[in-house]
Structures are given as structure tokens and as C-alpha cells.
Design a protein that fits this description.
The chain is built from 5 helices and 5 strands. A hairpin with a 6-residue loop joins β4 and β5. It has 2 domains: 34 residues; 91 residues, 3-Layer(aba) Sandwich (Rossmann fold), CATH 3.40.50.150. Strands 3-2-1-4-5 form a 5-stranded mixed sheet. The protein is 38% helix and 17% strand. It starts with a helix and ends with a strand. It is of the alpha/beta class and 143 residues long.
Amino acid sequence: MTLARRLKQTFNAIRSSAGACKILLHDQRYFASVRDGEFRDREKNYLPWFTYPAIEAIKNWDLSEKRVFEYGAGFSTLFWASRVREVVSVEHNRAWYEKLVGIAPPNVRLILAPIDEIENPPTRRSGSLSLTPERSTGASRLS
């Protein structure tokens, strides 16, 4: 393969990667989310820290009659609130709890409970989703 052909292939790969980066970082508002400290989409709706394909899949589900229970409140709480009947979220950090109380819609019930004080966590009911943040990574597990 000639040097010119290799350079052309490399340039095409870089251009393709740059296009994908533009979609993720600019069009999907990732840079703005990092800058603002709030993970939001182009319409400024709150998003959970899930992958973009997972978020798009969830947006297509009819969850209007579901209830969500979360250990760890956040922007995912606000995301779920716009899609489900009720969100119950237990938060251990007082400052974060107070921030969310001020912006949470009426279908969100926030419970302040430092981790050391949770003795008998609520059990999961039929027809509900349960979200548990992974403490080491900040990711969430859906069950």
C-alpha cells in the first residue's frame, strides 16, 4: 500500500471520528453538561448517567403507570419523574437532597437518610423499577 493511500485512509478515519465526537460532545450536549454540572439533553431535559443508546431506548418505553425506587437521588430522579407515575428516592447527602427538593416535581418523594441510618430498606413492589447506584463507579444498576 502506498504512503498516499495510507494517509488518505488515516485522514478519512480521523474525519469520521471527528463527526462522531461532534455528535456526542456538541449535539448531545455532553460538553455543556460537564460545564454546567447538570446532565441534560438538547431540550434541556435532565438525563440519567446512562449511555445515550440506553436513554433513547428508555424514552421509547411506556412507563407512565410505573413507579421507580432509587437509592441515590439525582438527575435520573428528574428524568424518571417525567416518564413514570411516581419516583421515590432515598438520598444520603443533605446538601444534594436540599438541591433536589427545590427542583423536584410533585410526583417525586425524596427521603433523606444517611447511609448509616438505613436499617430496613423498602422492598420492591410489583410494577416498579428499582435503581441502585454503584458507589464505586457512579453508574446505576436497573433491576
